[in-house]
């Protein structure tokens, strides 16, 4: 009779479990939020975009920075799609990553029941519903209010809610008149209020101001904000071909996404069913996509990070990221 020690049994179980959950070295995992920055990745998966270099693409959804940190800690991800300030924050806290590109330069806007409000100044003395207190959208609108010469506490009432869905529900149920949202939530909210039976009770809503255009007007620069892109996790040595291929395929899928709105929205909603297909299709023309590599985005990023630093330095980890943050 063959005897196996308890220690060997535990070792065997460990090896089996490790092999079961270990990341396949031929699979490139790209994690991302449900936001627009991730949508071209879903097309990359569908197209098997890395087959030419013998790799398979897998997309993993992250819903908040804590989930993203867990994926990184467990070494379950190769690339991440994320807001630029989150990338800077992780980098400044010691995560080994490099920003590869910026592809999202405009997703923020105000939705209002009043179609005559056209600037930040027009919202003086108004209550604005804002999801995610102290997150990027909140800091952007606060920076714009300050730059316009108005006072956040005396001239505005910013009411914070937990999620964009909460903000949308308050608009639809007439509990609020104005809200700060990002695409595709803006387009989805407008679709919901225009569809039966919601339109029987919901107010008329309008796209009010584009925060990127206000950013350009008030800071006297181009009307765009470097909001999200791709980063790579870990050492980049020997990965130049992979990085180049991922960026090239992302660029192709981004172009396809912009030019095939209905088909793209159908594809994305299969993976992210919490989104609404027609609203997502509407949103594509209202997002400013511009795929620029990280080093060429540095000037815009540092201007943006400086503004964030002035309002809440914790948003980017307390300091501007150094040169090694940018993939060259």
Straight-line N-to-C gap: 62 Å
CATH topology of the largest domain: D-Maltodextrin-Binding Protein, domain 2
CATH superfamily of the largest domain: Periplasmic binding protein-like II
Order of helices and strands: HEHEHEHEEEEHHEHEHEHEHHHEH
- CATH architecture identity of the largest domain: 3-Layer(aba) Sandwich
| Spatial extent as radius of gyration | 22 Å
Gross geometry: globular
Low-confidence stretches: 14-21
User: Main sheet: which strands, in order across?
Assistant: 2-1-3-11-4
The count of helical stretches stands at 13
Total domain units: 2
Query: What portion of residues belong to β-strands?
Result: 15-25%
Secondary-structure-derived class = alpha/beta
Largest sheet: 5 strands, mixed
Helix content: 40-55%
Which CATH class of the largest domain? Alpha Beta
**pLDDT averaged over residues:** 90
Which characteristics define this entry?
5-stranded mixed beta sheet; D-Maltodextrin-Binding Protein, domain 2; 328 residues; 3-stranded antiparallel beta sheet; alpha/beta; globular
Describe, in plain words, how this protein is organized in 3D.
There is one protein chain. It is built from 13 helices and 12 strands. The longest helix is centred in the last third of the chain and has 20 residues, at 240-259. The model is unreliable at 14-21 (pLDDT under 50). It has 2 domains: 25-106 and 227-325, D-Maltodextrin-Binding Protein, domain 2; 108-219, Periplasmic binding protein-like II (D-Maltodextrin-Binding Protein, domain 2, 3-Layer(aba) Sandwich). α2 (39-46) links the parallel β1 (27-32) and β2 (56-61). It has helices at residues 6-21, 39-46, 65-73, 84-92, 136-147, 152-155, 164-172, 185-193, 211-219, 240-259, 261-271, 277-283, 298-311; strands at residues 27-32, 56-61, 79-83, 97-99, 101-106, 108-112, 127-131, 157-161, 178-182, 206-210, 228-233, 288-293. The strands form 4 sheets. A 5-stranded mixed β-sheet has the order 2-1-3-11-4, with helices on both faces. A 3-stranded antiparallel β-sheet has the order 9-6-10, sandwiched between helices. By secondary structure, the protein is an alpha/beta fold.
């Amino acid at each position: 009779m063959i005897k196996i020690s308890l220690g060997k049994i535990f070792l065997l179980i460990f090896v089996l479990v490790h092999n079961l959950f270990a990341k396949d070295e031929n699979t490139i995992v790209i994690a991302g939020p449900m936001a627009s920055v991730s949508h071209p990745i879903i097309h990359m998966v569908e197209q098997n975009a890395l087959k030419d270099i013998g790799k398979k693409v897998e997309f993993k959804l992250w819903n908040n920075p804590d989930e993203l940190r867990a994926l990184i800690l467990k070494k379950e991800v190769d690339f991440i799609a994320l807001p630029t300030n989150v990338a800077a924050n992780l980098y400044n806290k010691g995560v080994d990553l490099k920003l590869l590109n910026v592809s999202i330069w405009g997703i923020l806007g105000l939705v209002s029941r009043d179609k005559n409000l056209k600037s930040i100044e027009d919202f003086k003395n108004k209550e604005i519903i804002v999801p995610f207190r102290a997150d990027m959208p909140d800091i952007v609108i606060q920076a714009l209010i300050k730059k316009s010469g108005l006072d956040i506490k005396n001239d505005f009432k910013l009411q914070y809610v937990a999620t964009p869905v909460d903000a949308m529900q308050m608009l639809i149920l007439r509990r609020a008149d104005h809200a700060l949202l990002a695409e595709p939530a803006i387009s989805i909210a407008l679709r919901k209020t225009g569809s039966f039976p919601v339109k029987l009770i919901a107010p008329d809503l309008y796209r009010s101001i584009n925060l990127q255009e206000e950013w350009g007007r008030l800071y006297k620069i181009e009307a765009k904000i470097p909001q999200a892109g791709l980063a790579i996790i870990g050492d980049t040595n020997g990965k130049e071909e992979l990085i180049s291929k991922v960026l090239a395929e992302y660029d192709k899928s981004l172009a396809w996404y912009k030019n095939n709105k209905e088909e793209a929205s159908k594809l994305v909603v299969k993976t992210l069913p919490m989104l609404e297909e027609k609203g997502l299709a509407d949103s594509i023309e209202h997002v400013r996509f511009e795929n620029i590599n990280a080093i060429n985005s540095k000037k815009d990023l540092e201007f943006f990070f400086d503004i964030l630093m002035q309002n809440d330095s914790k948003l980017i980890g307390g300091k501007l990221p150094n040169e090694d943050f940018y993939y060259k």
